[in-house]
Write a structure and sequence with these properties.
The chain is an all-alpha fold. 79% of the residues lie in helices and 0% in strands. It has helices spanning 2-75, 93-99, 101-111, 114-135, 141-158, 160-170, 179-210. The longest helix is centred in the N-terminal third of the chain and has 74 residues, at 2-75. The radius of gyration is 31 Å and the shape is flat. It starts with a helix and ends in a 12-residue tail after the last helix.
């Protein structure tokens, strides 16, 4: 009887041990899950805070410099080239010079004003620095797209010809130079186009609903 009791006790302890082990494993999985969740929340909070910081820099450093350059060109009555391509950094500056007179005028003006040339270089480098933060995933680009996305794309598009000059001079634009600017432009410009199309579709849907279409049924079918 003692032996039977001992076996039962051992069997019971073994069952309890299995339950305890199962609970320990479950607790371990829960701890890993919550740790991963907390880590994601932490990184998301930090990326959003970083995005806000970059948005402030964009407003305080980039916009004033862009506006100051605009004012200089306006005072000197320099006609700005129209948007030449949907994607910046693509094309050939020599070909564009022959097709657009305004481009050559702007290039000549910049060439004879080294200070302006330096200011434009500073602007596009600030845009590249800004883009790196979001292309690299450090900042949450979705959070500030609505506030600065359109203006960022406008700036990059406006100085499209200047990027082509750099491309012509460096011959390696496709191998790293301003690649973050191009990547962020393509992403945000795509979002802007999608938004425009969706707005047009909503307007068309409203117009479609407002159209009354009457039918005349053949005699005897009413």
């Amino acid at each position: 009887m003692f032996a039977a009791t001992t076996l039962n006790t051992i069997s019971g302890l073994s069952g309890i041990a299995q339950i305890v082990s199962a609970l320990a494993i479950a607790i371990g999985f829960y701890q890993i899950f919550f740790a991963a969740r907390d880590s994601r929340i932490k990184y998301l909070r930090e990326s959003r805070q970083y995005a806000l910081t970059q948005a402030e820099k964009f407003a305080e450093e980039i916009i004033p410099k862009y506006a100051a350059l605009d004012e200089i060109f306006q005072k000197n009555k320099i006609s700005w080239p129209n948007k030449l391509t949907k994607t910046p950094l693509i094309g050939d500056i020599n070909e564009l010079r022959t097709k657009n007179v305004d481009i050559q005028k702007v290039i000549n003006f910049i060439s004879f004003n080294s200070n302006i040339n330096a200011e434009i270089n500073l602007l596009i480098n600030k845009l590249e620095s800004f883009a790196i933060c979001f292309v690299g995933g450090v900042g949450d680009e979705k959070m500030i797209f609505s506030s600065v996305g359109g203006l960022f794309c406008t700036m990059v598009n406006k100085y499209h010809f200047y990027y082509l000059i750099i491309k012509d001079q460096s011959k390696d634009l496709g191998n790293g130079t301003f690649e973050n600017t191009l990547a962020l432009f393509n992403m945000w410009n795509g979002k802007l186009k999608k938004g425009d199309i969706e707005n047009k579709m909503r307007e068309l849907a409203k117009d479609l609903e407002s159209v009354n279409v009457d039918e005349i049924k053949p005699v005897g079918t009413k």
